[in-house]
């Protein structure tokens, strides 16, 4: 996987994410990272609640 880097070959494709990480100022990065983390936590909490409900319904049967 890292053979390209050893040989000096790198991809010329830049995603908008990679450009953002390289070029955005720290306050913008902090805002985006915070929003991403908040959404991930919300998603994880939702999954945990769904699992708890499934477990409760399985125990009732």
Walkthrough of the structure:
This protein is mainly α and about 60 residues long. The chain has a domain at about 25-60. It is about 75% helix and about 0% strand. It has 3 helices and no strands. The chain has helices spanning about 5, 15-25, 25-60.
Compact overview of the structure:
The chain is built from 3 helices and no strands. It has 61 residues and is an all-alpha fold.
Give me the number of helical elements: 3
Provide the low-confidence segments as ranges.
none
User: Over the alpha carbons, how many angstroms does the gyration radius reach?
Assistant: 21 Å
The largest pleated sheet is described as: none
Mean pLDDT reading: 88
What is the helix/strand order? Answer: HHH
Compute the number of strand runs.
Answer: 0
Distance between the termini: 50 Å
Strand content: under 5%
Helix content: over 70%
The secondary structure category is: mainly alpha
Gross geometry: elongated
